[in-house]
Specification:
106 residues, alpha+beta, four-stranded antiparallel β-sheet, 3 helices, 26% helix, 26% strand, elongated
């Protein structure tokens, strides 16, 4: 079984909207559910999601010099740590127990 690559959230900042569009066209990243480009004094920024291999390819893309790519977080690693908090047992097994944590529907 092959192991999936981690998903990395990055902030990409371009001088203008056209440069950002070119980068998006060249790299085809996952833009998430609510992709909102933000205009700042430095340019136009957008959070994007890449697998590790895609991020390396994006940094080598033809349009990469037009943007600044900043790694924000490893989304998969954070998910793994949060998953550790989920218990294995039935939190509703005892009638007088107060439920806590994430549960499993049955």
């Amino acid at each position: 079984m092959s192991q999936e690559q981690d998903v990395i959230r990055c902030h990409v900042l371009a001088e203008n909207a056209q440069a950002l569009r070119e980068f998006l066209h060249d790299t085809q990243p996952d833009i998430g559910c609510r992709a909102i480009a933000r205009h700042t004094q430095a340019g136009v920024g957008l959070d994007l999601y890449f697998r590790q291999e895609q991020l390396e390819q994006a940094r080598a893309a033809r349009s990469a010099p037009l943007v600044d790519i900043t790694v924000i977080e490893n989304v998969t690693e954070i998910w793994r740590s949060l998953k550790e908090e989920v218990g294995d047992g039935d939190r509703f097994a005892q009638r007088d127990a107060v439920p806590h944590g994430l549960g499993r529907k049955e």
